[in-house]
Inverse folding.
């Protein structure tokens, strides 16, 4: 918000400066005024006009578009003044170029590089360990528990993906990351972006899990709906669990590539779901009171799981009395392809998600 206000204030001040440079440079007596050379200024105006005409809310906030167009209109009105001086024209060239630079910097594509916590493209195409981008962590390819899947299990495999290579998970195979800093995944703002191509429709199609429902997890639920669970600690209130989906059946169709994003902002109290770049559902704390406070840590240090909900040993230690997960169908794991997984420590906006989808939809 501060950045947006700064940009708007900058452009507003720039507009005033343009007016000032025009009117203070005009002579007040009857001396002959040499016509100013406006060739360069006209070219800059044309360039800015083309940029403004092409700008949409897919790439920019509407407020930034409006502010840039206002500055452009001010410059066009100034150059139309036949009494404008050459120094005023030169100043306008500098000022309008600065406005263009400021506007381009406001594009949604500029997700801060340091916002990426974890990235896996799977383009290595081979190996039993992968090093993540963002903060370097080691993702270990792991077979599903033989106690449940028997000899039919094995490591995840590399296949052709949405962008380059992808990873195929079946029979409980998954990735485990143990060399992470827990604080990185306990931020009040978190976004998960990935492409999925599920094999089948079922419960417990876990995509990414950090201490399963004890902290947060992202999965496909029945009807192939993206589904997110988070556990928060709320000051002065009981612990808050939030279960939410995007309320759109068949969002991620079987055997079809779909881009999914979940964006959590506990500061604002919102949880948003995106399918193929479009916001399909946003929940807020008035409906889901647990969307506030801080993410809850978990007493047991578990690996960050990709393609499964929790290690088999955790199930035996903590949930053996329940037994619901002790079958091939019920064990929390993903069956299908996954590509371009990214976890951010920011809550991605509508425009940022749309641009991310555009960039990866090749």
């Amino acid at each position: 918000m501060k950045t947006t206000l700064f940009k708007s204030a900058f452009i507003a001040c720039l507009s005033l400066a343009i007016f000032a440079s025009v009117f203070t440079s005009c002579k007040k007596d009857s001396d002959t005024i040499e016509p100013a050379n406006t060739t360069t200024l006209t070219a800059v105006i044309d360039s800015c006009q083309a940029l403004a005409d092409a700008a949409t809310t897919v790439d920019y906030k509407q407020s930034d578009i409006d502010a840039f167009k206002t500055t452009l209109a001010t410059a066009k009105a100034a150059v139309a003044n036949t009494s404008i001086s050459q120094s005023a024209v030169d100043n306008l060239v500098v000022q309008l170029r600065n406005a263009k630079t400021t506007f381009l910097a406001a594009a949604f594509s500029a997700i801060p590089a340091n916002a990426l916590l974890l990235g896996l493209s799977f383009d290595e195409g081979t190996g039993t360990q992968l090093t993540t981008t963002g903060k370097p962590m080691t993702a270990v390819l792991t077979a599903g528990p033989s106690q449940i899947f028997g000899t039919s299990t094995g490591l995840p495999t590399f296949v052709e993906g949405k962008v380059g290579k992808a990873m195929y998970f079946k029979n409980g195979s998954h990735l485990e990351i143990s060399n992470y800093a827990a604080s990185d995944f306990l931020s009040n703002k978190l976004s998960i972006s990935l492409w999925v191509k599920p094999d089948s429709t079922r419960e417990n199609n876990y995509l990414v899990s950090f201490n399963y429902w004890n902290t947060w997890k992202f999965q496909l639920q029945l009807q192939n709906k993206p589904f997110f669970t988070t556990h928060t600690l709320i000051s002065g209130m009981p612990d808050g669990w939030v279960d939410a989906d995007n309320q759109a059946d068949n969002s991620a169709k079987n055997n079809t590539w779909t881009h999914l994003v979940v964006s959590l902002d506990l500061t604002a109290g919102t949880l948003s779901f995106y399918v193929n770049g479009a916001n399909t559902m946003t929940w807020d704390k008035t409906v889901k009171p647990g969307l506030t406070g801080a993410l809850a840590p978990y007493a047991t240090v578990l690996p960050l799981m990709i393609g499964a909900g929790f290690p088999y040993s955790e199930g035996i230690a903590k949930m053996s009395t329940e037994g619901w997960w002790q079958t091939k169908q019920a064990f929390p794991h993903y069956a299908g392809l996954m590509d371009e997984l990214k976890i951010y420590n920011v809550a991605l906006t509508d425009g940022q998600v749309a641009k991310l989808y555009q960039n990866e939809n090749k």
In short: Residues 4 and 41 are 27 Å apart (CA to CA). The chain has a mean pLDDT of 87. The chain has two domains: 2-105, 113-360. The helical segments are 2-23, 39-54, 62-79, 86-105, 146-149, 312-319, 350-360.
